[in-house]
Specification:
With 374 residues, this protein is α/β, with parallel strands linked by helices. The chain is 28% helix and 29% strand. The strands form 5 sheets. It has a 7-stranded mixed sheet with strand order 2-3-1-6-7-9-8, sandwiched between helices. Strands 10-11-18-15-16 form a 5-stranded antiparallel sheet, with no helix packed on it. The structure holds guanosine-5'-diphosphate. The site of guanosine-5'-diphosphate (GDP) has 16 residues, from helix 1.
Length: 374
Amino acid sequence: PEEPGAPNQDEDNLRSPICCIMGHVDTGKTKLLDCIRGTNVQEGEAGGITQQIGATYFPAENIRERTKELKADAKLKVPGLLVIDTPGHESFTNLRSRGSGLCDIAILVVDIMHGLEPQTIESLNLLKMRNTEFIVALNKVDRLYGWKVCKNAPIVKAMKQQSKDVQFEFNTRLTQIVTQFKEQGINTELYYKNKEMGKDTFSIVPTSAISGEGIPDMLLLLVQWTQKTMIERLTYSNEVQCTVLEVKVVEGHGTTIDVVLVNGVLHEGDQIVVCGMQAWKSPFYVHYLSLGPIVTSIRALLTPHPMKELRVKGTYLHHKKIKAAQGIKITAQGFEHAIAGTSLYVVGPDDDVEDIKEAAMEDMKSVMSRIDKS
Ligand code: GDP
């Protein structure tokens, strides 16, 4: 690993931070995602679409455009932001990359009308356990009585438009919530007052996922916070770090895997190893499990079009190679029994495939022990 602040660190050689969304049910996690990507998955879900894990990539250009009203002089050093759509905190627990958390930063969503709720505290405990940085989105500010909508406005600007009563209610609720966090051993502060950024005090961004107030602030804060506090972690490395999110059959492509490429680069044709498992019944109704690494070659590297989610149906873009961080669909032979939650390994020119197979199976064991425990 590089020395902190090593002079040869190349700021242009950063990967995109990976962000996930956590919080109590109904705080607006899905709506916030919809709001930042300008789609409407939540209404679709009500229509019976199953919850899956997806990822959305926001290029820096998009973030720059949406945050320009904030007149932030900070230049964006990361190429973009990859947001994982985590339905609840199970996926945060299961999404691991070689033993550590997959996410660089989390958005912990709190409903300003409800304050901290049981799953907020569960999420907090997970974040603490993993030592994961997070920001608090204090959502549903538009529900403050008498709120005047300022669509997609930066929060300070929106707050200035509000009556004294609304501002008073906001401050009262904010103070209560800061106290609730303190009771959990967490210091929080409104982000624009939290000059120190990081380490001891976590930032709160007031948002509305319905009318968009505070969304520019949230996007900018995610990028600024990660750039400032985790340059080392975000420094691009040649070693591939990649986690399998889902295994699924896609018409015309056979069994595919959806992965998050956390670091490194993948190429079409790369020889890869993923964990596999097969179950069958014997004539005596005893279940047998057969575990084994799958060795195959990448046939195609696919991504959805920018700003669309991995799970939204449609055409894919084909790539000769992809650099981290990205959500990618991979097609190859032999994925039928691949296992989600495990790592994908690339067999490099100097690697012994047997060593890599062994590493994959070690990873497999850790996944199995997590399943046993739950
Ligand atoms: P999740 O369970 O955390 O994913 O919550 P959802 O995104 O499904 O939102 C729960 C409910 O709260 C839905 O009816 C949303 O329309 C509503 N909601 C979410 N965010 C906001 C917001 O910022 N303001 C208001 N007024 N309602 C919101």
